[in-house]
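job 3f2a | input accepted
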Amino acid sequence: MQIAEGKIVEFIENERFVCALCIGKKTGKIRVLTADNREQNLSPNRIILVSKKTVNLSRPREELLSFLKKEEEERERLKKEVNVKELWELLKDEEENFSNEELAQLVFGEKSNDVHVSALVRALFEDRVYFKFKNKTFIPNPEDKVQQIIRQREEERIKKQKIEKGSRWLRDIIEGRETEKPDFAEGIIEGLEKIYIFGREADDYEFTHQLLVKAGISDPEQIRRILVKVGRWEEDENIDLIRYKIPVDFSSKVAEEVTKIKAKAFEKEGREDLTDLDTFTIDGEETKDFDDALSIEFENGKILLGIHISDVSSWIKPETNIDLEARKRGISCYLPRRQIPMLPADLSHDFLSLKKGEKRLALSLILEMDPDGNILNHRFVPSIIEVKEQLTYDTVDKRLGKDKRFDELYRIASYLKKERIKKGALDISLPEVKIRFEGNIPVSFELIPQDTPAHVIVSEFMILYNWLIAKLSLEKGIPILFRTQEKPSEIIQKKEGMERIFYVLQQKRKIGPMSITTIPGPHSALGLDIYTHATSPLRRYLDLIVQRQVISFLKEGKYIYEPEELEKIRMEVVSSVKDVQIVTRNRFRYWTIKYLSMHIGESFDAIILDELKNKYRIVLCDFLILAEMKKKERILFYPGQRIKVRVKKADPWRDILEFEYEDKTK
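job 3f2a | predicted structure (666 res):
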């Protein structure tokens, strides 16, 4: 393309054609003058059109600018006369390519000139539906491509309308104005929910982001307030349930299977009738799913101890809808003010729960022990039991010294615990933190000790059951999922005066990783050579799997799962359980921070855990949650020191918790 001085050239700038005059060349660049009296240097590659006629550059600058302006106006006027669709209809089936000049002749006739060519090129460039721009010429798009572009443009038009209308609706909500909800409001709400939780990873992020930008919304708190105002979320919505996709309801197919299960009769064959035993449960006051019970008898100087676990596996068969749903959940989720059971409540809280006065199937461990607590004989047996008493931990603690059953149980449990500690078991239990609510407001926190006699009784006999069922499985060659734990990297010595909370948290840091595996191994923290979990089949899916394997072997001499199948199940369930644990931990932290947000300026006891560069890591004694506190000049603390801290800032939604040292000397 020869570009001489005085030629009218056209190039694209900011998505529009610009008409200019070539006024010179320099070092490979074309110097041009535009109608708005700008001079600029262009690469020849940027020039789209060059006129055939030449303009006399010796004319006054004002005349040249006026000339360019008129040329520009004429090109724009003629551009409107180009019917791009008609031209495309004429050429779409032609195999040959046409030059810009030839296309202009088809539109304006044989006498078309530079201005007509420019008008044609401008029209096609602006339309971009029927022709594609390639090598400075235009080629008709295939018909399917045209339809695709038309659909896309229509979608963009609708999208733009939605953003305009939707953003006005969001602004009205924020500013508290009564407003008409758009017919696509549900989609907006879903988008807000996802972008709040998942950020840039949210589905359809771009649309929702554009909506928020148009509405002038940048603070996530504004998004949350909108979701609360429109009724999508509660004020204290647990968004982790959405983030981690925790299922909260059961399908109709599961409900149908529950009905069929409850209609079935007991399978008494192959079971030992233990309904005459004085069987009782010991649980917390709010427990609804009773899956373990105890019994104790005294006979000829010996102790007959029964540990009875609800037989869930005989009711819930592998690969049924209930079984697959329980596998997906992995574990029951216990949250402040809410429980999300692994199994439907009709089963976990009723039909399969060891409720007082109801005959239930169980897998019982019957032990014959000497008065010192040594095991003389033991056996696992599929059974039928009937709970006579539903007791709480507090009730049992109060009966100590008044009821021989509990005195003996506590004596034996204490002996079992002492023997485990001799073998390296760690005593690292901390109190359970219970939150008391009034409506939606957390009003107090209670630390419930886990080392009372009643708790020791239940804990030690469940550990005993799990240990012996693991030994049985190993001896009989039953594949199960064992729980193993490496030795601690260090044993922390509890020194005189050391706070127990500090000691436990320091020791837990040193504990080796725990594994769930088909290969047996020692569990160092419990001081046992082998271990598994089988005592909570209503609440933990892997416990149900172990129970399934053992009962199948005891009744039929065979097991259900091969090691490879167990490994596949383990991988699936462990992932779900981790998610539930995160949700549980986060929810407890949320309610704790909310409580503290209502006590700004008040002081609480804390223990220094670590000294970092510019801050201390602390644990709050009344809540057992971790926080951080900035250092102050000339005020130093040491790990393990108990101090008073004042709540400076607390925001549960942003997970912000800030404290400052309360200096009582001031």
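job 3f2a | The two ends are 86 Å apart (CA to CA).
job 3f2a | closed
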